[in-house]
């Protein structure tokens, strides 16, 4: 619960269990078949009445988060206020636990969280479709941060179809030193695929089946990220992290979205703890954390 007069929203991180990337479009974006899964690492956004718009942030990565109007949480408050013709008078406090610039949609989570928190604080009761439109305007990953669970994102990833998930999955996430810029990773994808026919992105039926039945082994076999080669090209040291996780007993390893966070699918909570400890001891990453999925989308606490 928030302090009286304020609203707190909790928002999950994501991992892309499949990220199929098409050729660059004329607008610079790429069409995707993006299978999002929300995981139990969360940011919290608290909205409190204030004169004007201000932002504070706490957490181990707080110094890497912009506190000006470029923060996605601030942009969310401004877009929502503009839609309703009110002024964005709010103080937003972000408790950041999702790695920054890590490929886990941390900024997107804060955008979706601020949107929901301001909507409740200002008593606007904005229809869900309008909130989703504002999310898409904020960024390709933001609609999924609002929705959570599992979903297929098409277009640039913003058009969502929710997916059924038949069971829980256990993960380990290894955060790397420093971030990777999402546009730079897509740019490297373009460079690596120059002169190559890039197929239309399509969701894998085997992967969707694995999610639907909650089959960890089948999901491990189907995990795929078309941005992985680009992330590894920009950050070759990630190969050692991926190897350390599979050596320690993970069923599969992949780069999370645009990276540099790496994701390891494991069979149970006990293996997750062991793989996280081995990754931390390996010296190939900054920290390793366990998490489960699916996790709910943005939720008012
Ligand atoms: C890598 C992913 O995290 C996978 O979920 C997303 O595709 C990125 O989503 P995001 O961070 O919300 O990205 P946006 O803020 O919408 O776009 C940032 C930049 O990423 C590139 N971008 C993003 C999404 C997309 N479908 N194609 C792209 O080429 C573009 O250069 C764009 O200017
Ligand atoms: N609330 C925010 N939290 C973190 N970064 C933010 C935020 N708002 C804007 N940014 C900017 O966005 C950049 C990318 O941060 P973010 O943590 O969203 O990356 P990401 O997890 O790789 O994103 P994605 O997975 O959606 O591509 C940061 O380097 C920062 O400059």
Automatic annotation (TrEMBL):
ATP binds at residues 99-109. GO terms for biological process: isopentenyl diphosphate biosynthetic process, methylerythritol 4-phosphate pathway; terpenoid biosynthetic process. GO terms for molecular function: 4-(cytidine 5'-diphospho)-2-C-methyl-D-erythritol kinase activity; ATP binding. The active site is at residues 14, 141. Residues 208-282 form the GHMP kinase C-terminal domain. It holds the Pfam family GHMP_kinases_C. It catalyses: 4-CDP-2-C-methyl-D-erythritol + ATP = 4-CDP-2-C-methyl-D-erythritol 2-phosphate + ADP + H(+). Keywords: ATP-binding, Isoprene biosynthesis, Kinase, Nucleotide-binding, Transferase. Its EC number is 2.7.1.148. Pathway: Isoprenoid biosynthesis; isopentenyl diphosphate biosynthesis via DXP pathway; isopentenyl diphosphate from 1-deoxy-D-xylulose 5-phosphate: step 3/6. InterPro entries: GHMP_kinase_C_dom (IPR013750), GHMP_kinase_C_sf (IPR036554), GHMP_kinase_N_dom (IPR006204), IspE (IPR004424), Ribosomal_Su5_D2-typ_SF (IPR020568), Ribsml_uS5_D2-typ_fold_subgr (IPR014721). Residues 71-149 form the GHMP kinase N-terminal domain. NCBIfam families: ispE (TIGR00154), PRK03188.1 (NF002870). Catalyzes the phosphorylation of the position 2 hydroxy group of 4-diphosphocytidyl-2C-methyl-D-erythritol. HAMAP family: IspE. Belongs to the GHMP kinase family. IspE subfamily. This is 4-diphosphocytidyl-2-C-methyl-D-erythritol kinase. It comes from Streptomyces venezuelae (strain ATCC 10712 / CBS 650.69 / DSM 40230 / JCM 4526 / NBRC 13096 / PD 04745). The lineage of its organism: Bacteria, Bacillati, Actinomycetota, Actinomycetes, Kitasatosporales.
């Amino acid at each position: 619960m928030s302090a009286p007069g304020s609203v707190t929203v909790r928002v999950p991180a994501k991992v892309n269990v499949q990220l199929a990337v098409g050729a660059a479009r004329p607008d610079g974006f790429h069409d995707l078949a993006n299978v999002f899964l929300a995981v139990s690492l969360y940011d919290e956004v608290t909205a409190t009445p204030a004169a004007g718009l201000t932002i504070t942030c706490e957490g181990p990565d707080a110094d890497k988060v912009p506190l000006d109007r470029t923060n996605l949480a601030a942009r969310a408050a401004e877009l929502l206020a503009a839609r309703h013709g009110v002024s964005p008078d709010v103080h937003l406090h972000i408790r950041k636990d999702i790695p920054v610039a890590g490929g886990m949609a941390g900024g997107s989570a804060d955008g979706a969280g601020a949107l929901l928190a301001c909507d409740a604080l200002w008593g606007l009761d904005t229809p869900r479709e309008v909130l989703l439109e504002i999310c898409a305007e904020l960024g390709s990953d933001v609609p999924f941060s609002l929705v959570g669970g599992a979903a297929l994102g098409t277009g640039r990833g913003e058009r969502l179809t929710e997916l059924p998930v038949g069971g829980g999955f256990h993960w380990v996430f290894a955060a790397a030193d420093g971030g990777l810029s999402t546009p730079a990773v897509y740019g490297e994808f373009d460079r690596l695929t120059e002169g190559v026919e890039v197929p239309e992105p399509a969701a894998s039926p085997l992967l969707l089946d694995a999610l639907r039945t909650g089959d960890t082994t089948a999901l491990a076999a189907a995990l795929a990220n078309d941005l992985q080669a680009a992330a590894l090209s920009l950050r070759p040291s990630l190969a050692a992290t991926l190897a350390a996780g599979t050596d320690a007993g993970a069923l599969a390893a992949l780069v999370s979205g645009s990276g540099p966070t790496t994701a390891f699918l494991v069979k149970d909570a006990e293996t997750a703890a062991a793989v996280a400890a081995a990754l931390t001891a390996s010296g190939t990453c900054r920290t390793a954390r366990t998490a489960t999925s699916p996790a709910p989308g943005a939720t008012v606490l």
